[in-house]
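Minutes, project check-in
Item: structure for the 286-residue chain
Input as provided by the requester:
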Amino acid sequence: MCFPLKPTMWLYELWYGERPPVFDACASHLNAPWAAPLIRAASPEAALLVMLRPPAEQNASWWRLEQGAHAWARGMGLEGDFLREGYPPRSFQDALRLSQSEPVAELYRTGELAAAKVLGASSTSIHGIRGLIAALRAPCLSELLLPFPGGQLCAFEHMGRYARNVARYAKLFGKERMVFAETQAELGKPGGAALISARLSALVPRLRRWQDRPISRSPDGRSLSAGGQSSDNGKTALRLNESQTLPPELEPTQEVLTQLRQHYRAANLELFEFLGRDLGWNDESK
């Protein structure tokens, strides 16, 4: 279940005898430097699924997604008066340069310290009444740090350096609580989603028990599990939120993407060393 209400959790626990697994998924969690300590305080036994893809392609996809968001805002009649001067960047190259700038790097360094201020020097958990009161009295994160320090289009350089981001979580949760999956290599093949689910189930045994409970049926009549997944696990997962191609003046060029792949080679090697395996992202023959 994603973001269930407390009464919903109580009802499920009353009916099934245990609470259902709860999840949250957001691209900002991995990259935002303040997120890991807050997640650790709220859910110290969480299992973490880290979706990976070549950083140049990830950057381009994020650019397309955000262009769609800005187009939606303009379509809703929202003007740019709520945006700061010089933002958003006008091109993909401008966004890359902004993400590599020293002012943005300084915001990320500030973000590294922000969670400690929110949690408090003596607070290690927000469970219980005392922890809740302490959390309510704690300082809030600055808007400049939300959801990414400096803004969504300042994040490319920091999103592309996976090793730095995953190390932040490994330090707090332990590498053994993390499942790593390549978006294209694993979700793009039949049964890939089921394999990832099985790896998560090894960390969260309740997940398998809930997935095995048939509670509804899909529109075509197939049985669905409690997690909403079809029992036909041999099918390829659908991409429901794939970014659309942009107008030529906004679409990242192949030349820029080639340069970006070269730029991330060293960062990719750091990730491969952390994982203990080569994902092949630096293979120029692909």
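Outcome recorded: Strands lie at 48-52, 178-182, 214-217, 223-225.
No further action items on this chain.
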